[in-house]
Amino acid sequence: LTLISSEIINLRKDLVDATPYLPSYDRGKYEQHLKVLEESLSRYRAPKAKFAFKRTPSASTSRAPPALDSTKREPQKASSEASIVPSTTNLELSSRSSAQLTLSSLVRPTDVPPSQQTTLSRSSDITLTDLTDCIVNLAPRTSPKDVLAKFEPTLIITALHARALSRVVLAMPPIEGSILLHDIHNSIIMVGCHQFRMHNSTNTTVLLHVLSNPIIECSHGIRFGVYPMALCRTSPQSLLERSSKHSMVQDFDWIKSSPSPNWSIVDPTPFEDRLIQVLDNGVTDTDVGGVLKEIFCSTDQLDVTGR
């Protein structure tokens, strides 16, 4: 219990430290997760502090209840311990190049027992860092040949944090949480979310379905377009039924009344079919470079429409 309490305290401290840059939607969600953990821990500790049966004056009756109570408390202990296991984990992809990466490439937490990993991974944040020349397809695969075909459709991605991506194609189904991107360059991002924010990025196409105004900061050459509905096989219908605000971008570096020169609107039709074909069929690692070159050449030739 001491270890669990310490971990919860550390999580609370991490949340406080991250508050300045966390979107309000995520901040509230993480606060609720912590509150559930703290309440579960308090409920488990409460019986140990009381022991009301020890105050019974009769010695014979005082010895009997502990035996009965002990048998009752054992399953409660197991139940309480199960309830304080976090329902949201963080899965990672880091330091990869010239590769096709899918849900099965995600690294699970090393401190989680294998028997619990499937349960914990049903709901997870995703972190991507230091990826170069990669195709990252986080949309669920239904092919029986996929070793995680039965697991992947159950994964609920709660948030995406990505940093230092270069010449990357990223595709994922819309999520109920937020997406935060840093240092994204010469890439194509296909995502859907409640909140979208991009920092320090250049020359990147974002095909987006978002419910609030997307935000860019310290970025230029960012092109926004309509999210491909072909990636919505297991998406939250409530999210898709609401209108997207991908064309209502807020540029925090542009306070003038005139349109910001740092972003534009594009029509993804010329290259969308090829993108979906690559994502559905997959490519070998040796072919990734050639496929990326083909896709990026087609996007560089796009005509930017006015706003």
Considering the chains and any ligands shown, give keywords for the structure.
single chain; 307 residues; alpha/beta; 12 strands; 36% helix
% residues in beta strands: 25-35%
Order of helices and strands: HHHEHEEEEEEEEHEEHHE
- End-to-end separation: 57 Å
Q: Count of DSSP E strands?
A: 12
- What would the principal axes of the Cα set say about the shape? globular
Biggest sheet features: 12 strands, mixed
Mean pLDDT: 76
Radius of gyration: 24 Å
Low-confidence stretches: 68-87, 143-153, 301-306
- How many DSSP helices? 7
What structural category do the secondary elements indicate?
Answer: alpha/beta
Helix content: 25-40%
Characterize the structure shown.
Strands 1, 2, 3, 4, 5, 6, 7, 8, 9, 10, 11 and 12 form a twelve-stranded mixed β-sheet that branches. The chain starts with a helix and ends with a strand. The longest helix has 27 residues. The protein has 307 residues and is α/β, with parallel strands linked by helices. The C terminus is likely disordered. It has seven helices and twelve strands.
